[in-house]
């Protein structure tokens, strides 16, 4: 039996849910509204580059403390699709990891070691990642200081990985491996540098979530994806590819909105978690 919800949510976390400055949920109505939507049977997936550990601490624990309804359908995809788990009233369920896409240990040691030895004043290693490498901006440096160090660091990582004869891509630079393949990429974000499989992305994460809901007999008449990065549009791409109606909410449209064959929305005058909060509040008011 299939249950069709009036809508479903695919949510990036840093940006629409968590404040990119405070790196936690700073607007309480966001939690209240997620709990209300969950209890109403709205399928909700968090699709994030963050680790499961970050999500446990900053999001899941607060949903559990707020009394997540046992009938809610909530799913988490972490590390851009590299691992995933259901979210239950008891907390995060069993974590599954896509080992085939994991960064080799020797590469992790070298890339993280470089950050620890030479860039510790501007960035730190996210120790909780299973599949990808993430270097996050220290909270006590200015964005300008971080960007300067981040750019130097990324140049050095590209040189280091090329030197190890790994196939790697960084911006428009590419170094294929001995087989002519480029399995890895260096991906800068506003607060981090990720080194990861080229197969990790938000569309993969969205597919994982849609499959999980479908296996439980849950679908929606329309999905809404929400995110602050250009790559977050990929969540809506994955829904659209299945022929299901979708709208993407861009909470940082100043970065340049993308042309898509489906509706792209903004919250006029609002960005980041303020936009996310306004969006969720309206979704609660639209519940049947
Ligand atoms: Mg984001």
Fold and architecture overview:
- The chain is an alpha/beta fold.
- It has 2 domains: 3-98 and 201-285, Rossmann fold, CATH 3.40.50.1000; 100-197.
- α1 runs parallel beside α7 and α5 (202-215) crosses α6.
- It contains 7 helices and 17 strands.
- The model has no long low-confidence stretch (mean pLDDT 96).
- Bound molecules: magnesium ion.
- Residues 12, 14-15, 227-229 line the site of magnesium ion.
Which radius of gyration do the C-alpha atoms yield? 19 Å
Low-confidence stretches: none
Shape estimate: globular
Tell me, what is the CATH class of the largest domain? Alpha Beta
Q: Indicate the percent of residues in helices.
A: 25-40%
SSE topology sketch:
Layout: E1 3-5, E2 8-11, H1 28-39, E3 44-47, H2 52-65, E4 74-78, E5 83-88, E6 91-92, E7 96-97, H3 105-118, E8 123-125, E9 133-137, H4 143-163, E10 168-170, E11 173-175, E12 184-188, E13 192-197, H5 202-215, E14 218-220, E15 223-227, H6 233-241, E16 246-250, E17 263-265, H7 272-285
Parallel strand pairs: 1-14, 2-3, 2-15, 3-4, 10-12, 15-16, 16-17
Antiparallel strand pairs: 4-5, 5-6, 5-7, 8-9, 9-13, 10-11, 12-13
Bound molecules: magnesium ion.
Keywords:
binds magnesium ion, 288 residues, 2 domains, alpha/beta, 6-stranded mixed sheet, 7 helices, Rossmann fold
Briefly summarize what is shown.
With 288 residues, the chain is an alpha/beta fold. The protein has 7 helices and 17 strands. It has helices at 28-39, 52-65, 105-118, 143-163, 202-215, 233-241, 272-285; strands at 3-5, 8-11, 44-47, 74-78, 83-88, 91-92, 96-97, 123-125, 133-137, 168-170, 173-175, 184-188, 192-197, 218-220, 223-227, 246-250, 263-265.
């Amino acid at each position: 039996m299939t249950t069709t919800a009036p809508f479903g949510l695919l949510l990036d976390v840093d940006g629409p849910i968590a404040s990119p400055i405070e790196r936690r949920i700073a607007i309480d109505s966001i939690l209240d509204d997620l709990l209300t939507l969950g209890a109403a049977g709205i399928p909700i997936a968090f699709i994030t580059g963050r680790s499961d550990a970050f999500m446990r601490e900053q999001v899941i624990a607060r949903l559990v403390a707020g009394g997540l309804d046992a009938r809610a359908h909530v799913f988490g995809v972490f590390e851009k699709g590299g691992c995933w788990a259901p979210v239950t009233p008891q907390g995060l369920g069993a974590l599954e990891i896509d080992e085939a896409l994991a960064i080799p240990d020797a590469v992790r040691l070298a890339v993280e070691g470089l950050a620890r030895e030479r860039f510790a004043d501007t960035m730190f290693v996210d120790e909780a990642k299973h599949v990808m490498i993430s270097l996050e901006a220290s909270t006590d440096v200015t964005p300008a200081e971080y960007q300067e160090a981040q750019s130097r660091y990324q140049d050095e990582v590209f040189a280091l990985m090329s030197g190890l004869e790994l196939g790697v891509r960084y911006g428009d630079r590419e170094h294929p491996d001995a087989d002519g393949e480029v399995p890895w990429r260096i991906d800068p974000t506003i607060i981090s540098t990720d080194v990861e499989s080229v197969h990790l992305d938000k569309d993969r994460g969205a597919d994982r979530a849609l499959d999980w809901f479908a296996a439980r007999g849950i679908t929606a008449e329309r999905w809404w994806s929400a995110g602050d990065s250009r790559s977050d549009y990929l969540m809506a791409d994955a829904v659209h590819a299945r022929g299901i109606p979708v709208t993407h909410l861009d909470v940082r449209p100043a970065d340049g909105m993308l042309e898509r064959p489906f509706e792209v929305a903004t919250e006029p005058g609002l960005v980041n978690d303020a936009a996310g909060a306004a969006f969720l509040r309206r979704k609660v008011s639209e519940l049947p």
